[in-house]
Write a structure and sequence with these properties.
Blueprint: E1 24-28, H1 32-43, E2 47-51, H2 57-64, E3 69-72, E4 86-89, H3 94-106, E5 110-113, E6 126-130, E7 133-137, H4 143-156, H5 159-177, H6 181-191, H7 196-202, H8 205-210
Parallel strand pairs: 1-2, 1-4, 2-3, 4-5
Antiparallel strand pairs: 6-7
Helix pairs in contact: 5-6
């Protein structure tokens, strides 16, 4: 039995980053929630299908500018999940959402249920991106709280952190690819000590990182 569907049982959430460009997602629903989910998935590079008898104009406009978004203007039917690894039930009809969730569970897929998160096995997060830095916030099924916390973190962890993370990733790849794992460990020890955030925020990190290039 799927644990999260049992009433009264606490659910321990496992944060997990997915490689978006390798994900095929199905969203059932054509309203604003579906559009928001689609935008997040497309921003991560996912291939997205939306199935709904009525699709909002904003979602149609989104599809016109994203070749990785496919719209199917009809009701959900058996077999629609197909090869989707991630299924999102985001209609305004609870019975349909439950049907989509049941089908996804039967196929052992990841499923997010917008109006009843406990019926799914995953949640989407309020996400902040600054280059390769990605921060996802979940707040017990209260998306407004997650969004407020995300915005607060975004005010601090902005472009300067994105640049620092990009510098570190480039340095790590170069040293490790050249077989210089010991040099990378020394660089990481020096650059990622307890004063890492302080150096990023006072602007001295870039100069110190240059010494290891």
């Amino acid at each position: 039995r799927h644990r999260s569907a049992r009433r009264g049982v606490p659910v321990s959430e496992l944060p997990l980053m997915l490689h978006g460009e390798m994900i095929e997602a199905l969203i059932v629903g054509g309203g604003p929630v579906a559009e928001r989910k689609a935008r997040a998935l497309l921003g991560a590079g996912a291939l997205v299908r939306i199935i709904a008898p009525e699709i909002a104009d904003e979602t149609r406009a989104l599809a016109s500018s994203h070749e990785r978004l496919e719209l199917t203007p009809r009701a959900y039917a058996d077999g629609d999940i197909g090869s989707a690894q991630l299924v999102i039930a985001a209609t305004g009809d609870r019975a349909i959402n439950r049907r989509v969730a049941a089908d996804a569970h039967a196929l052992h897929r990841m499923v997010n249920v917008a109006d009843e998160p406990s019926r799914g096995n995953c949640r989407t997060t309020a996400t902040h991106r600054a280059g390769d830095l990605v921060i996802g916030i979940s707040a017990g099924g209260v998306p407004q709280a997650a969004a407020r916390i995300r915005d607060s973190l975004a005010a601090r962890f902005g472009d300067r952190y994105g640049a620092a993370v990009a510098t570190l990733a480039t340095l790590r790849r170069r040293l490790v690819d050249d077989g210089q794992q010991d040099d990378w460990r020394r660089a990481a020890s020096a650059l990622l000590d307890e004063k890492f955030c302080e150096r990023v925020e006072n602007g001295s990190f870039a100069a110190e990182a240059d010494q290891w290039r």
